[in-house]
């Protein structure tokens, strides 16, 4: 390696070993999303976009990044509103996909901060809200907060692309597609959300199974502390994951827990939690036993 090794010894005091190795200094790089391998058959976009994805959920991150990158877009990732705001001030983006529910600073706060900065610059970036709440009145609330559009979660790849590359579509055209049926896990529906690509679905399942123990631990801890806000956030995260995998029972139970926490009824939330835990066990078993075609 071109280095040098030597010894210096002094009687009565011991020996000192010296070693030098020449190395090349490597500057730290700006964080970025690693390009995905080509696992989706998606035609390139007419004009590649520079997109900021503000999303804290690993499963949603992986799905969105895979779809957008295969379309030819560049994606930067922010895990909360503070990171999204920092990225906005650092680089120019064509579109910002902004999750509404995020830790530290939520999507509404981050959007308000970005719009305030735009008053000084005179430029406006397109911001699309990502939300599991697509109910009556939500569209108006999001648009009033400064969002240009919204996309309900869970979403299909074509819905994501329609929101990022609008072609005269209204927000209602990209509303969430609710899970149907009473099965623990609807593989066909989940595969459709992964654009019928087994490799992508397998990756998403792996991410979900890896992150699930932490999500369940967060919920249990919040229940023990009787922290209604923390219960709400944990249930919201579990609801989004369950809906992504077309697990309607899990999604409904998590939604009910979220509703109870939002109403401050911690006793009822504590009583309902074991039902969700049991259904999560069923979902975990179903996903773990999946047989893949590839």
Automatic annotation (TrEMBL):
Residues 266-293 form a coiled coil. GO terms for biological process: cytokinin-activated signaling pathway; phosphorelay signal transduction system. Residues 197-290 form the HPt domain. The modification Phosphohistidine is found at residue 236. Pfam families: Hpt, Response_reg. It is a multi-pass membrane protein. The keyword Cell inner membrane does not apply. SMART domains: HPT, REC. Residues 50-168 form the Response regulatory domain. One of its GO terms (cellular component) is plasma membrane. It comes from the Eukaryota. One of its GO terms (molecular function) is ATP binding. InterPro entries: CheY-like_superfamily, HPT_dom_sf, Sig_transdc_His_kin_Hpt_dom, Sig_transdc_resp-reg_receiver. It is found in: Cell membrane; Cytoplasm, Cytosol. The modification 4-aspartylphosphate is found at residue 99. Keywords: ATP-binding, Cell membrane, Coiled coil, Cytokinin signaling pathway, Kinase, Membrane, Nucleotide-binding, Phosphoprotein, Transferase, Transmembrane, Transmembrane helix, Two-component regulatory system. This is Two-component sensor protein histidine protein kinase, putative. It comes from Ricinus communis.
